[in-house]
C-alpha cells in the first residue's frame, strides 16, 4: 500500500532478537583456561639386590698356550687335529731329525775316544810316563766331549714337540711336510680340567665376596647352571664402572663346558 510501513511479524522479530543476544553473550564469555597437565610421579628404582647382582661371565681355560717351533726344520709327522684330546707328554709334532742324530753319534764317538785317552794317561802317570799336565789335559778333553754329547742330546730332543699337560687342541697352524722356522706358531692348546671365570662384580658386593665363597653360574650354550668358587679378588676397584674383578673357577670338571662359552653369574646369594 502506498505510504504504509512494513512491520515484521512477531516470529521474525523474536528470532532476530535471540541471534543478537547469543552473539553478545559469546563475545563477553571469557575463554576457558587450559587444563593443567597431570603431575608425573617418579617411581622408585628397584632396590632389590637380585635386580642388579647378575653379571656376564666368560669361561676361559685354566691354562692355554701356543706351541712354537724351536728349530728350523721340516715337519715329519703331525699327530694332532682340531679338538683332539691328548695326554701329558704325548708327542704332538715330529720333525725330520737325521742331521741332529748324526751329530749326536759323532759326539758320542769323540767322547768315547776322549775317555779312553784320559784313562790311558792315568795309567801312564802311575808308571811315571805321563805328567800331571798331560793327565789334566786329557781330563779336560773328556769333559769337553761330554758337553758336546749333552748339546747334541738337547738338539735331538727338539726333534719333537710333546704336550706339557693334558688338554685339547684349539687350533693347528701347520701341515705335515711343511718347513718351519724358530718361533713359528704351530699348535694352540688348552688345558683340561675345571674352567676359570672372568667377571666384574659391582663394588658394593665387596663385603659379601670372600675367597672360597660359592655362587651359581647359568651358561647360555648349555642352558644349565653350575656352581663356581671365588679364588681371588682384585685389590683395586675400577673408578669408572665401580666394579671389581673377581677370579673364579667352576667347582668341578664338566665335559659339556668349553672355553669361550658365556653366561650370567648370580651374585645375589653367596653360599
Identify the overall geometry.
elongated
Structural class: alpha+beta
User: Termini distance?
Assistant: 115 Å
User: What composes the largest sheet?
Assistant: 6 strands, antiparallel, barrel
CATH class of the largest domain: Mainly Beta
Strand order of the largest sheet: 1-10-13-12-11-14
Count of folded domains: 2
Low-pLDDT stretches: 1-15, 24-33, 37-51
Architecture of the largest domain in CATH? Beta Barrel
What is the name of the CATH topology of the largest domain? OB fold (Dihydrolipoamide Acetyltransferase, E2P)
Total helical elements: 4
Measured as a percent range, the helix fraction is: 25-40%
Beta percentage is 25-35%
**Number of β-strand runs:** 14
The CATH superfamily name of the largest domain is: RNA polymerase II/Efflux pump adaptor protein, barrel-sandwich hybrid domain
Gyration radius (Cα, Å) is 45 Å
